[in-house]
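tokens incoming
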């Protein structure tokens, strides 16, 4: 990884009324400062449901935890529903250690209807 490359990134898509935000890489203080405003903007214009997909997160520290809590606060403030897709065992363990595993609604995978909708949307974009 070069000096100018960030160790994290995100990808978003909307399926029906749900915004899915896939987080990738290291969620630390830098990620909190860089991704926080972008996620806040997405959540503010999103419909009520937001899913944070943690499956591609490789590292989580206090800054990353702050990011997750900030997203929860933004979504809740708007009257929305936030769900997390469980990350690796290491990430799940960290959430358990800091006693946040019960604070979030945690899913094992993307709900089927959303996964099928995302595949349909991607197929439509690819055929354009």
């Amino acid at each position: 990884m070069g000096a100018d490359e960030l160790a994290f990134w995100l990808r978003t898509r909307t399926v029906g009324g749900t915004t899915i935000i896939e987080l990738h890489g290291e969620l630390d203080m830098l990620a909190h400062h860089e991704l926080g405003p972008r996620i806040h903007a997405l959540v503010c214009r999103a419909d009520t449901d937001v899913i944070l997909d943690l499956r591609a997160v490789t590292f989580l520290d206090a800054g990353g935890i702050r990011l997750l809590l900030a997203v929860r606060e933004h979504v809740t403030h708007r009257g929305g529903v936030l769900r997390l897709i469980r990350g690796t065992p290491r990430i799940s363990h960290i959430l358990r250690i800091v006693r946040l595993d019960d604070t979030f609604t945690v899913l094992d995978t993307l709900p089927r209807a959303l996964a099928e909708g995302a595949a349909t949307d991607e197929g439509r974009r690819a055929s354009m």
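note: Residues 15 and 116 are 9 Å apart (CA to CA).
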